[in-house]
Amino acid sequence: MPEPEIRISAAVLVIGNEILSGRTQDSNLAYLAARLNDYGIQVREARVVPDLEDAIVAAVNSLRARFDYVFTTGGIGPTHDDITAECIAKAFGVPLVIDDEIAEVLRRRPAPPEAMEARMRMARVPQGAGLIRNPFGPHGFHIGNVYVMAGVPQVMRAMIDGLDGQLRRGQTIRSRSVTADLPESRVARRLGEIQAASPHIDLGSYPFFRDDRHGTTLVMRGSVEAELDAMLEQIRRMIVELGGTPTDEQRT
Amino acid sequence: MPEPEIRISAAVLVIGNEILSGRTQDSNLAYLAARLNDYGIQVREARVVPDLEDAIVAAVNSLRARFDYVFTTGGIGPTHDDITAECIAKAFGVPLVIDDEIAEVLRRRPAPPEAMEARMRMARVPQGAGLIRNPFGPHGFHIGNVYVMAGVPQVMRAMIDGLDGQLRRGQTIRSRSVTADLPESRVARRLGEIQAASPHIDLGSYPFFRDDRHGTTLVMRGSVEAELDAMLEQIRRMIVELGGTPTDEQRT
């Protein structure tokens, strides 16, 4: 079955002071980007905003108008700094309501009354939201084109993995990569020509310095395998003609 | 000497398809956020955009209007996909010019004529820009409140480290943290009360699951050391009162 030719875009919105302070290194964006590409969805922008209502509401409304999907991570726990649910409700102009199914999940794990009351914060979803399954505890939710997930990587991964088959599917982008033992400037002009001749393929050039030598990894991304293979062959030939050796070839 | 009481804000703009495809895990934001806080500057938003002119120009113009500083990483090499310099020039409405000092640095390392021509792309800066020192090669630049740095972490770090003392200095945010062997929901209500009583301090709660047990790390961030110490003491007492043991205390 041929893949659909439409491109479906997404933005990722990471919510949390701990990412902006440098205390925590975000790893959710890289996982989400790769997983969404498996689903035929390309991440075209990412933002990190603090745990502040105005910042979250403004980012959600800006991104959901510009991209097919928005995936948020963070801020859906039981404490005072978890304000994502109310911000999404505000962005959509709907009230927060208690979701019976999430409440049921929360009641299953015993806790003192005070703790249970705090956990019930996690049952609040914007009116009209659907659920995103979480095998470890309370579910996330989606409303309109916005998908709201946990910030804890283990939980976020289970949530996005569980969305397989539930999102609109567009083109999956495939890639080829090859490394040249040549500095970036040596390949620059030829790369520019190769890119100009094949504007449908995104050709990226990533320099590195390792074991006292300059090298460059060339990455091709596109939806048509045959075009990628042809460009990979061109680039491999270019590396040899410039006196280098192509290595570390990869296809995904 | 007492610290100045003004807050100085920054945004980080990460430029590069490789971050949005998930191929490369960004580590520049976390380093920049911590380093800028040492300089008395707080990162309040971060964005990742692809190597596309419209996306870069729009993000630069939006962020530079809203924050005291903007720091960009990526897209300043010698190849066709390095378009940051022209995008910044376009955002500021000025032409690109050759910077003699960068050109001199580039000429120092011998290269075949074709490679040298490609490297001279890196000498182009927006008219009126100042330089950001790079001990490894061509300098970055700054114009207005926008600082343009390399994407390669080793080079980016040298560039931001070299800006020590050259940026406006505001409050440095200090932090305290302590870990409770209690699930987040157990501490939630009391944390909310503690936060409400001290709105100047940002109190964050970060749950984790380790060795089959739920735990929570509490992080306090603010500019007044005595206030932070007082809140840390309150939270330590709260953990004990709830039947837990406070551990892993940290001060920065």
Q: Overview of this structure, please?
A:
Two copies of one chain form a homodimer. The first copy, chain A, is 38% helix and 27% strand. Chain A is built from nine helices and twelve strands. Chain A folds into two domains: 9-162, MoaB/Mog-like domain (Molybdenum Cofactor Biosythetic Enzyme, Chain A, 3-Layer(aba) Sandwich), CATH 3.40.980.10; 174-251, ACT domain (Alpha-Beta Plaits, 2-Layer Sandwich), CATH 3.30.70.260. In chain A, helix 2 (28-38) runs parallel beside helix 7. In chain A, the strands form three sheets. Chain A has a six-stranded mixed beta sheet with strand order 2-1-3-8-7-6, sandwiched between helices. In chain A, strands 10-11-9-12 form a four-stranded antiparallel beta sheet, with helices on one face. In chain A, strand 7 (140-143) and strand 8 (146-149) form a beta hairpin. Chain A is of the alpha/beta class and 252 residues long. The interface between A and B is large, with 71 and 70 residues.
Write a brief caption for the model.
By secondary structure, chain A is α/β, with parallel strands linked by helices.
Highlighted features:
homodimer, 252 residues, alpha/beta, Alpha-Beta Plaits, 2 domains, six-stranded mixed sheet
Present the secondary structure layout.
The structure is a homodimer of 252-residue chains.
Chain A: E1 9-15, H1 17-20, H2 28-38, E2 42-49, H3 53-66, E3 69-73, H4 84-92, E4 96-98, H5 100-108, H6 113-119, E5 124-126, E6 130-132, E7 140-143, E8 146-149, H7 153-162, E9 174-180, H8 184-197, E10 202-210, E11 213-222, H9 225-241, E12 246-251
Parallel strand pairs in A: 1-2, 1-3, 3-8
Antiparallel strand pairs in A: 4-5, 6-7, 7-8, 9-11, 9-12, 10-11
